[in-house]
Amino acid sequence: MSKVYNTKDEVFTDVLSFMDKHLRDVMDSESIRIAEQKIEEQGSSRKGYLGNLVDEYVFGQKANNRHEADLKEVGIELKTTPIKEHKTKGYIAKERLVFSMIDYKTIIDENWEQSSFLDKNKFVLLMFYLYQKDLSILDYEFKFFYGLDFLNNISNKDALQIKKDWEYIVDKIKKGEAHLLSEAETFYLGACTKASDSSKRRSQPNSEISAKPRAFSLKQSYLNYIVQNVSGFDDDSKTISDGKNTIDSIIENKLRKFVGMSDDEIINDIGVVISKDPKQYKRALANYMVSNSNRKIAEFEKANITMKVITLEHNGKLKESISFPCFDFKKIVEQKWEDSNFYNLLEKNRFLFIVFRKDEEGESIHFESFKFWNFPVAHMIYAKSVFDETKKVINSGKIIKEIKKDKNGKEKRYTYFPNSKFNGVTHVRPHGKNSLDVIELPVADELTGKDVYTKHCFWLNADYIRKSLEN
């Protein structure tokens, strides 16, 4: 029989009593037997079942697919979400927090204050459990909880940004561009893909092009911010928000005044002393321009924004490509494209490009421009082709094409990996400390017979980035 709550405090009392416990602690032996059987049957889909079990055995609620909140009498939506232990931060979120599916056809007639999203999720009770790979979900320990109130208890600056993110997503759907949505386009609230089959599509208004099913989600980076707050982690990042403007507007207001100024003029204007260490100088300068400090920027941490400093030659050319983290040769061949680390980086990462240009003599730089940018959904086909070709090369065992020696007798290896001319967008090349910084191969290289090879990663082509800055 379902339990009825009359106040939020009654709910908080029950969830508080469940902290530091496991589901096995609150279930009878017969319920545990049935649950273990279902867990065995469901396999990888067991995460949703965990939430259902919490609803039933902690709050006395049977699983449902209602459009209103789970505990509608007190307006509380229940969510369980995993955390992981971290060496320096205590705990971090394991993944983003996914909400209800986006109905492309009905959402275009909604506004934020009366939206179906807020109707269901105005107040969300988040229950964080410690994920441990080899444990049954019945043995996950629930560590802490948090009441997420989208209208009242989050800061004004975050509430404003989440509203603007929702409006941005809806405006794009209204334009018939649901098929071009990307998580990276917004700051805190995203539109994440949600389908058991990546080929599934849904019709959308104002366009004949079908779109991937998507759901609203709080980005993993924003959930990290909540986790660290509620777990008592001492965050030393610097906030730049004022509660009146969105992140992009704040950045524009801060950086616009520096356009055209030399680095020395910028430093003089800010009134700081910055070491001109070539490895750190321009990044530190960019940090001071944005936040008047060299600390991490809180909004960038919460929104998964990567600030990239780009230096153009005097003639406007860009020599340096943009790198991503090194990939594991053995793991990448087992990954499907939309489950791959590379796809997720392109889908979720938002960049802030800070662009400097060298003067004619190359002795100083001027601040030329800035731009928020994310990898276009329409270009994912090019990234996928490089990803697929890379897997093919690794699996074939034919990585090294030939080895040549230069005039000094130093060996240079030429590979079959897709290079910068492969499709003009992205490529693969080394990214280790040196040629001895290696990782194991799933198949030994045919030419050399070695079962290890220098670390590699995906890169965005320099010319592609330069053109993106111009558009």
What do you see in this structure?
- The protein has 471 residues and is of the alpha+beta class.
- It contains 15 helices and 19 strands.
- It has helices at residues 8-18, 29-42, 46-59, 104-107, 116-121, 156-174, 220-230, 247-255, 263-270, 281-291, 298-303, 329-332, 341-348, 380-396, 462-470; strands spanning 77-86, 90-93, 97-101, 123-130, 141-149, 189-193, 202-204, 207-211, 214-218, 305-312, 322-323, 350-358, 365-373, 400-405, 411-415, 426-430, 438-440, 452-454, 456-460.
- The strands form 7 sheets. It has a 4-stranded mixed β-sheet with strand order 2-1-4-5, with helices on both faces.
- The longest helix has 19 residues, at 156-174.
- The termini are far apart.
How many helix segments? 15
Oligomer status: single chain
- Percent in helix: 25-40%
Poorly predicted runs are none
Strand segment tally: 19
Into which percentage range does the β-strand content fall?
Answer: 15-25%
By helix and strand content, what is the structural category? alpha+beta
C-alpha termini separation? 60 Å
Strand order of the largest sheet: 2-1-4-5
Mean pLDDT: 92
Largest sheet: 4 strands, mixed
